[in-house]
Amino acid sequence: MKITKINLVGFRNYLNTTIEFGNHMNIFVGDNAQGKTNILEGITILALTKSHRIGISPNIIMFGKDKCKLSGIVKKEKIISKLEIEISDENKKLKINKTDIKKVADYISHLNIIIFTPDDLEIIKGSPNVRRNLLNIQLSQISKDYLKYYNEYNKLLKTRNEYLKILFNNSIADATYLDIVTDKLIEKAILIYQKRKEYIEYINLNINKYYKEIGNDDGLSIKYIPNINIEEYDSESIRKKMKHTYKKNYLKELNYGMTMYGPHRDDFYFEYSNNDLKYYGSQGQQKLAILSFKLAEIPIFNEFCGTLPVLLLDDIFSELDIKKRNKLLKIINNDEIQSIITTTDLKNINKKYLENANIYNVSKGIIERK
Questions:
Q1: The domain boundary residue, chosen from 260, 277, 305
Q2: Residue 302 burial (C-beta neighbours within 10 Å; 0-12, 13-18, 19+)
Q3: Quick one: pLDDT at residue 90?
């Protein structure tokens, strides 16, 4: 899968800019605050319908404009698709090949991406919600069933929480309805647990290989921590375990007025030499672990989607020393992988990795190819 072109209209600091990408490595060079990261954000929104950026104003529309529009051409083998997103304060309009798309679930997966940014340190240091969000985004790109069940689970979760409050405040309310909702919730949760477990197992096939290849270190893996203690991941075992958990903790959930058990409270952590990297790893080790995680996702897309994702690397060279930069470039300098990279400079980069790269200068929102 490759993105061959993107057009940004009224988006951040781009009034009307079209960028054409090469099939392999594309590097955008410029000082900070010139608009490099905005390019990656535009691609992310085009792919996922939302931004990846943390702590940035959600107002992506250029000052003085009432809407912005992003469009791009995506090539998957011999299939060419045009994706469009128009965003205003009121709504968001999606199109594929000029056809309106009403459901996000029908839009996502037409452009698969993996993105690494300096903010990704939050994946290790942040709350479990950050890690769950990462799993949800990536699994939604490779499995329409996951996205469907996850959305349905959240609707049922909201209903169940509301009815727990009703039961707490009204002793004559019918608890049978809660049982019905709970059974439906469990059926959606089963697939979520199974897909998350499978995804992390696939990550563990390659994460330590990349960690060792780039950092010359060993012993990294991911440990999945489902909110319910699940030992066997076949459907019947999960179903029995969840029913037992909800029955056992009925009064507790009733008093709190919320569902306290289920995949909406899952977590995972990075284990390095039998220790949680959050507490026993340096910042350099943590950054490298996250990068290794992202690289380990690439073959998963190939396995489930039959195509490789577009790799987006924001300010990557500032995150790595000279040796690690070149080891990373050696890995992604692959004819089959399209990468889009931002950096402030190309110092100490092995020139053989730049020979076939498309290099662009970015200054105050003006993009010029070298």
A1: 305
A2: middle
A3: 86
Its pTM stands at 0.93
Classify residue 31 as exposed, middle or buried by CB count within 10 Å of its CB (0-12, 13-18, 19+): exposed
166: in domain: yes
Q: What pLDDT does 57 receive? A: 53
Name the nearest CA neighbour of 190 among 222, 131, 236. 236
Q: Show the domain range for 101.
A: 1-112+307-370
Distance CA 14, CA 211 (A): 37
Residues 292 and 324 in one domain: no
Indicate the average pLDDT of the chain: 94
| pLDDT tens for each residue of 167-205 | 999 877 788 999 999 999 999 999 999 999 999 999 999
Q: Which helix (H) or strand (E) holds 272?
A: strand 267-272
Q: Does residue 70 fall inside a structural domain?
A: yes
Residues 211 and 357 in one domain: no
279: CB partners within 8 A, 6+ apart = none
| CA separation for the pair 344, 12 (Å, rounded) | 19
CATH number of the domain that 16 lies in? Answer: 3.40.50.300
pLDDT in tens, 140-151: 999 999 999 999
Could you tell me which residues come within 8 angstroms of residue 310 by beta carbon, excluding any fewer than 6 positions away? 1, 2, 3, 43, 47, 111, 112, 113, 114, 338, 339, 340
Task: Let me know whether 316 and 300 are in one domain.
Answer: no
Average pLDDT over residues 310-314: 96
Assign residue 219 a region (left: φ > 0; alpha: ψ between -120 and 50; beta: otherwise). left
